[in-house]
Write a structure and sequence with these properties.
The chain is of the alpha/beta class. It has 10 helices and 7 strands. The longest helix has 20 residues.
């Protein structure tokens, strides 16, 4: 049984049906099949279907949610896309860096979401905070910026190599998933009296998001020791 890497594309409140149709066409062209929509426009309208062309199946099976938090419930690793740096996360990773970051996670993750914001205003700070890391597409000129469908196409193309190699990846996922390791780290930080929301707490959690599988297991061992010592006091 091969370890599948599921990559999901999420559009938050897309307002233009043509953009949703074009996004569906882009992800199918690059070998992906799952589209999730948060409070979308009429994604099954004529204009959306025309732009989807031979990808209407992606539109028809797209899952619709009322919040990003709900759409991310079953996702192991979420990547927010943003046209500019946002203060809610200290680090911003370029599109070219994402494949390596995802692949270094090894068997710790089985699902990844790429989250795209509204055509006019992008993602809110609260929505970005729900994601593990933020990614940007480097551009020579800030204006005119890429539209939603173009951004989806670039991400789908860049990440398609992960889709292609997934069939040769590890056959068995570890029982200690990324989310479980993250949870243990949060417990250890509390034991060390680093409070949620503090700069150092947030920074540690953010840096964990880009650690490799081996490094994550090292952190897990350290956190287990911290919690064990705390419990014995």
């Amino acid at each position: 049984m091969h370890w599948p890497m599921k990559i999901v594309f999420i559009l938050v409140e897309p307002a233009v049906p043509e953009n949703v149709g074009s996004a569906a066409r882009a992800i199918k062209t690059m070998g992906f099949s799952e589209l999730r929509l948060i409070n979308p426009c009429d994604h099954l309208s004529g204009p959306a279907r025309w732009l989807a062309h031979a990808s209407n199946d992606i539109l028809e099976k797209a899952q619709v949610y009322t919040s990003l938090e709900q759409a991310l419930e079953d996702i192991d690793f979420a990547i927010a896309s943003s046209a500019k740096s946002r203060h809610v996360k200290t680090d911003n990773y370029t599109l070219d860096e994402l494949s390596a970051i995802i692949q270094k996670k090894g068997t710790l993750i089985a699902s990844v979401a790429i989250v795209f914001g509204r055509e006019e205003s992008g993602l809110t700070n609260q929505e970005i905070a729900l994601c593990d890391i933020v990614s940007t597409i480097p551009m020579k000129n800030l204006y005119p910026s890429l539209n939603l469908a173009q951004a989806v196409m670039l991400y789908a193309y860049s990440l398609s190599e992960i889709n292609l190699i997934s069939s040769t990846a590890q056959e068995n996922r570890n029982t200690a998933t990324y989310k479980a390791l993250l949870s243990k780290t949060e417990m250890a930080l509390l034991e060390l009296e680093f409070t949620p929301g503090s700069n150092i707490y947030n920074r540690i959690i953010e840096r964990l998001a880009v650690l490799s599988e081996d490094d994550m297991h090292l952190v897990h061992s350290v956190c287990s020791k911290i919690l064990k010592n705390g419990a014995s006091d």
